[in-house]
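DOMAIN: structural biology
WANTED: fold as C-alpha cells
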Amino acid sequence: MRYLGIDYGTKRVGVSVSDEGGTMAFPYGIIENSKGLVGEIKEVCIREHIEHIIIGESLNYQNERNIVMEKIDEFIAELREVVAVPIVFEREFLSTQQARFFQTDSKHVDDSAAAIILQSYLDRKNTKPFLETLAKSAI
C-alpha cells in the first residue's frame, strides 16, 4: 500500500511518498500552492498509485487549531472532490524545523518535512500491530 504525505504551506506544499510496503517515507517534491495544486496532487496520486493521503495537522503551542489549519480544511474539501482515497491527519509539530536541521539543501525542506510527517504516521501504524501481538503473547 502506498501513502502520500503532505506538508501544507501557504506558499509551497511538500509532498512525500512511501514505499510499496508502507514502511518508509521518501521526499517526492514541492508544489507551489496555487490554483493548480489540487490537480497536481491528483496527478501524483494516479502516477504513484496512492491509496491513502496523510496530511500534517497544524496546531499551535496550546494544541489548538491555527490559521493554517483553516486553509488545510479548505484544501482537503477540494481534494476530496477529485481523489477517492482516505485522507488522514497526522499531528505534526515543527516538522519544517526538523527538516531544516537534517536537510542541508534549503530547496528541499518542504518535501523533507512531508516525509517526516508521513514517516511519523507509518511508524505509529506499523508499530501498533507489533505491540498488540507482543501484549497477547505476554498473557
